[in-house]
Amino acid sequence: MQVANGKIPTEDMARARDALGRVQGIFSATVVGQRDLYQALIVSLMARGHVLLESVPGLAKTTAAVTLSEAISGSFSRIQCTPDLMPNDIVGTQIYTYETGKFSTQLGPVHANMVLLDEINRSSAKTQSAMLEAMQERQTSIGGTIYKLPDPFMVLATQNPVDEEGTYVLPEAQMDRFLLKEILTYPTPGEEIEILTKTAERAFGKSTAQPVTTEDVLFLQETAGRVYVDESIKAYVVALINTTRGGGPRPIPDLRHKVRVGASPRGSLALMRVGQALALLNGRNYVVPDDIKSLRHAVLRHRIIRTYDALAADIPPETIIDDVFAAVPTP
Question: Which of 11, 50, 175, 300 is most solvent-facing, going by the fewest CB within 10 Å?
Fold first, then answer.
């Protein structure tokens, strides 16, 4: 059992640094820009979480997922969600063979190290629930038999903006199961020129870095869990989450007009786990307040349910999150 006491040997820190450097080298050789996307993916991978991405098409989501799976020597599956997609299409099914008179099990595409669930909000609620159950339990049940999902296992789900036609909004309770929700933006003009140049010169994917193994990923996950979190940092995290609920050391007076439901204890766990992963990513064996602040929007934007007044006033969740962090003293 891993203990977050910060007692990580120097050789383990060096191994983690080497593995992370190789993954970043392979990723940056294929994906231009998208630093936030890379950080969200690698942090979620180390924290044993899943990522929900919201963006328009064409922003390298599929390329990023494929590249990351190659960088960790893992298997990859892509599931294109449609309204007629059934749960068995994802988890697997039993097929009857006439020659033998027996059923055989065919595992679904969710049985991979890296799963890209494209346009999850185009699938029905029943299919969404089946996928999210597999994400949470890390196993599937086919014909009464339990099949463990591979380890490491991470889902990268994408969704269209909710105002597009033909989409089914994910319930808040299901969105809460994603460790991070990242909103991608268009590349800068300079990055887009680099994309054109690399495409013309066929320079994508030319990295000298060797992929890491899935054992290295499991080592990174175990090491991230050992990163030390001081009691003052834990109290800081709890104070932040309590403030989203209208409490905390310095309650925000008008928060109840903006937030209908604050973050759950799962939000506290997410902030801490992300902080540990970021600390390791930055070469430290202990968490500092900046590790908690760095990905605050991605951790909390899908965990805070705004009031109708806030929605009508078009107050973004990021503004509310910034108000919460401004109200809580930094240790």
Answer: 11
